[in-house]
Amino acid sequence: MLVAGIMSGTSVDGIDVALVDIRGSGWDVEVEQLGFHAAPLSTEVRDEILAVCDAPASAGRISQLSFLLGRLFGEAVLEACDACGVHRREVELIGSHGQTVYHQGSAAQLCGRSVASTLQIGEPACIARLVGAPVVADFRTADIAAGGHGAPLVPLTDYLVFRHAQFGRVLVNIGGIANLTAIPAGAGPDVVLAFDTGPGNMVIDQLVQDASGGERRFDRDGRLAARGAINRRLLDRLLDDPYYCRPPPKSTGRERFGAGFVAPLLAQGLRLEDLVATAAQLTVRTILQGVERFVTPRMQVEEIVVSGGGRRNPSLLEPLREGLPGMRFRTSDQLGIDGDAKEAIAFAVLAYRTWRGCSGNLPSATGASGPAVLGKIVPAPS
Question: What is this structure's pTM?
Answer without folding.
Answer: 0.92
